[in-house]
Amino acid sequence: MSEQDYTPPRVWQWEKKGEGRFANINRPIAGPTHEADLPVGKHPHQLYSLGTPNGQKVTILFEELLAAGHADAEYDAWLINILEGDQFSSGFVAANPNSKIPALVDHSTSPPTRVFESGAILVHLAEKFGAFLPTAGAARAECLSWLFWQMGSAPFLGGGFGHFYAYAPTKQEYPINRFTMEAKRQLDVLNRNLAERRFMTGDEYTIADMAIWPWYGGVVINNLYDAAEFLQVDSYTHVVRWANEIAARPAVQRGRRVNRIMGPEDEQMRERHGPEDFER
What we know:
It contains 9 helices and 4 strands; from the N terminus they run E-H-E-H-E-E-H-H-H-H-H-H-H. It is globular and about 60 Å long. By secondary structure, it is of the alpha+beta class. The chain has helices spanning 53-67, 90-95, 118-129, 137-167, 173-194, 207-221, 228-231, 237-247, 250-257, and strands spanning 45-49, 75-79, 103-106, 113-116.
């Protein structure tokens, strides 16, 4: 039966056999699959993550905070390998009931504070250290608007376009066309905004840039999904300019390496427990 002939059943049933790169970890139920405690290091902030675009947002912010002189922003970053199901351990589910990376446990409070979802972690840290997030008025509203734009938009880029273009077991015209149209629309939204601004909210570099860059900077300069030519990313000149400027920041370069287990070996770092780890 072809995809065009598929008729959904009256009641969907989960068949544990699946297709595609992530079939072995996708499931329609929540909760842990096994017992395992999360490790805890020496720093106030314990991050459990993987160097995907969502994970990079948080490690970039941590490295930017440290570069700006916030010594109390030191952190341990522990690898959660989602392809091996680490996100379904009892310890990780306690930190994030949604079983998605990243998750943060802030031990500077008593009891420790768990924060899950990357956007919530960015806001938590920015407010805690008074950095990279305007404190009031229109500037704060603009920053949060672009931050939540990323939260709502990137699933169409990753789970939509990226999945059907790069990871689905078969290439299907309808979903690829559908999500390509949306990915290009989003790039145009960014391009029009950045035509008039150095950064997403103006002249100030904020957590909005840190949230958006790993996804859309990844597409236009790092060829995420091997789709740069397909999406004609060079036509989004203002996005390319912005993406390259952020990519040149040393803190961004460090943050992008943390918990990364793919790509060139010199760009990988399974765990991060101190600045000395970047010198190895």
